[in-house]
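re: that complex we talked abt at group meeting.

here r the seqs, copy pasted straight from the sheet so there may be weird spacing, ignore it
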Amino acid sequence: MDRQTAAYVLLTWLAVFCYVVGTITNTVGVIFEKKRAERGSYGAALVGLALHGAALLYWWQVVGHGPYMAPSEVLSSDAWITMALFLFFLRVYPRVKPASIIVFPAVFLMIALSTMYNPGIRSLPPTFGSIWLVFHIAFYKISLATLVVALAFSLFYLKKGARSSAPWLERLPEPASLDLYAYRFAGFGFIFWGIAMLAGSIWAYKSWGRYWGWDPVETWSLITWLIFGVYLHMRRFFRLSGTRAAWFFVFCFVMALVSLFVTSHMGSSIHAEYFK
Amino acid sequence: MNSIKRFFLSRITVLCLICLALAAITLAALVPQSFMTSPADMETWQAAHPLLGRWSDSLGLHRIYTHPGFAFILAGVVMSLAFSTWEQFMKAWRLSFARREMADGAILRTALAGDLATKRLRSQGYLPVGENAGVSYLVRHPWGYWGNSLFHLGMVLVIAASLLVALTQQRGVLQLGEAETHEPTAPWTDEEKGLLARNFTLPCPIRLDRVTYSFWPNHGVKEVASTLTFLPGNNVEDVRSVHINSILTYQGIRIYQGMEFGHAFYVEVEGPGIRKEVFQLMLERQKAPEFPSYNRFRNVLGNDALLRAKYYVDAEKKSFARVDPLLVLRVDQGGREVGQLPLQIGGEGSIGPYRFRLIRFSPWSRLIFVNLSGMPGVFLGFLVICLGGIFHYFTPPREVMVCPCPDGGSEIRWRATRFATFYTDEFAAIRASLEAEERNG
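got the structure back, here u go
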């Protein structure tokens, strides 16, 4: 391993350590109602975020392109944006605080998965040198982050509705609020997903004169967006809520994961480059 | 008219249309579509899935996006979106500009007079939208009313503009070798045009002068560019360059540099039924110096003979920097290899009854020519969708009604039009602010 890669891996592992500390203290804080531990977990997450951000920026400078060309880069940057956005939401909407119990492990899981891939330097195809690509990718990552928050509330709802509800779940907001938060963040995810698709189509038009090519990643991304559209219309028109809405959202979330991480293996289009 | 409108606005219709579009696109993702699958691959798929293949033929599943059924669904979606946009536009207009009552919502009483309470609310971002008999109406983020109508309007714009693009676009692909000229009437390597579009012809002949390319250290492509000369006649030549991500526009036609490039080999062939004819064999670039690039040519030899070719850009297979190509030709007849022949420039030899001579080679590159209108509509639609979505989800309007009370104080009614639970803190903040104002006199 060369010195640059070693530095990147070291910074990433330091971030992993902070996230582990953050995840444990957060879980203890939320479940046993230890306010100090919960506050400490956000501090650990912030330190982890700073180290993680430094690792990503350093790697960006080393490889000469953003974190979107290899599974290790993609997962690591997804983890960073999810944590950063969650901490941002925490300031704007303090009521999302309980979602930390899902968001922290999700971030930890993503960064842990990223370390299992070789961070080797990938060269950038010339069509990838466009600012619209950066917007395209950034908005998908933002969308994923909001969907993780929505997933947290959907899972809380399902867990709270279960017969043997744990005492810590009683301290979560009312089921109706959980349901509403899930709906709201699903809406955010839908919009960011839409913007990401639109930025992608501008990128494609500027790069090869076709704003839509029906390749597997594009097609499944549109399918996922439409499924989210069905979810939102069902909620609005048919007052879909509660357990059924939560399960529907879990399905939508799985579809989003498939679109983001599986469909790039389905063909040999330009999209196939990023997660193989 | 009203019944048609009611039908398209019915929530069942809306949901059915979304589900039908979803089902059609999902089917198109699962069944190979003829516009993006080679005939050979399509045959392979049909052989592997005989039952689905039969259904695909009879129901047109391999051409969903050009199937009348899909056009029918799309028309329904557009109708529904258009009616919905109009309805929501009218609703947003009413909410933004008409004075209305507010029966529900949280209530608080304050000793402050109506105008003072209004002033305080205005300082918190609530904008006055009307007044009626002393009752003031204020809204925070009134543009949030327009979110849904803009969102749906954007989709109508995108679909309409996409339809215009799909019907009228002209798109041609050329794979040209260096020093080759394409005459406007010559056929394209690949062509696509809308149902209402005429044949795509260039305004003048075009010559590819030079292909330049470079590689990253790991052999990935770093840059590809082509120098083109437009030959409009009268001895006037117009030399331009096109790179990836740097589009060239010539008389309204957009020209893109494709990612594909390689070397074209000019091979003289002589054999049964062929009298010393020169063929151009195009092979795409290698992925690495030690791995050759392959292509097969069915129409060169005729007689059911298949010509297969591979090449190394550097005969020593060491780098991409040295260009000294080695072309290896193979002939298959009746599914069996007859023989193979390595060739370098000037080299010649025979495989079975065929005699080959490699005359020269030159780089080639792929150029994409696009002539279409409607893209500004597509992008405007995208912008409107984004705006609508942001207005709808990020700025739900919060309404306040300030009613003066007989005792000189006032009653404040507050509500969030969407996601109310999320904004209960805001109502608490209003209460705290008004109480502070009361205390401070």
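couple things i noticed - Chain B has a mean pLDDT of 91. Chain B touches chain A through 49 residues (CB under 8 Å).
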